[in-house]
């Protein structure tokens, strides 16, 4: 046997280092989520039984689940809660559309022009640092107690992530690619449409995902402070009556509305930005 054959036989067949996966990482995701939910409900029930928190403030899981079915039956029969949910859904959808249009326009201004980056962006950051909830009475005084004030507040709370995502996406294009377009004689508009916007789409959709969550918050806060006939008003009335199971159940249904908005954006990202590989966190949340 030659020296080369001896060295070859001494080298293991699998030389690539493989990370050892722990048993908890091999558990199916649905089973992990179910176990976490059951554990949370058990802790919740224990806290309720030992009266660590007053039962008036914290209902039992069974009471909350029972009220979930009551609210669900009310929604399925087309009673007043269905109309309230539809009003809140309208506020969320209209606020989201306005936030996307306004945020995209300002994002292009900030990301594409020196004037927008140097002059406009500082004011946008200053506005974003303000407590936006404090603007709710102003929107009510300007637009009245109808749906318009809630839509305006929802869009106002949700538009800034779209600005940041759009501006960051426009700056994501590689310098070599920009030089190539410039060498080929492409105009500024052609560079924006054919290079910067396609490359920046993942950042843009990241801003949309954040806005999809915040717009629900804005709509509900507007109903809290400005009246209305949506789910936020039902929560306020239930809280005033110390009907905490109803408060919890309405909050859960509102979270489903936020998740539905988020999943629609995630589906659109997978549909139109199919070349982008999502991170583990983004992929998990989108599923």
From TrEMBL:
Q: Name one Pfam family in it.
A: BPD_transp_1
GO cellular component terms given for this protein:
plasma membrane
Its record classes its membrane topology as: Multi-pass membrane protein
Please give the organism. Microvirga lupini
ABC transmembrane type-1 domain segment(s): 85-265
Is Transport included in the keywords of this UniProt record?
yes
Name the InterPro entries for this protein: MetI-like (IPR000515), MetI-like_sf (IPR035906)
Q: Which UniProt keyword terms apply here? A: Cell membrane, Membrane, Transmembrane, Transmembrane helix, Transport
Residue stretches spanning the membrane: 30-50, 92-111, 123-145, 151-173, 211-227, 247-268
User: Which GO terms fall under biological process for this protein?
Assistant: transmembrane transport
Q: Does the keyword Transcription apply?
A: no
Source domain of life: Bacteria
- Which Gene3D superfamilies does the record match to this protein? MetI-like
Q: Which protein family is it in?
A: Belongs to the binding-protein-dependent transport system permease family.
Location comes to: Cell membrane
State what protein this is by name. Answer: NitT/TauT family transport system permease protein
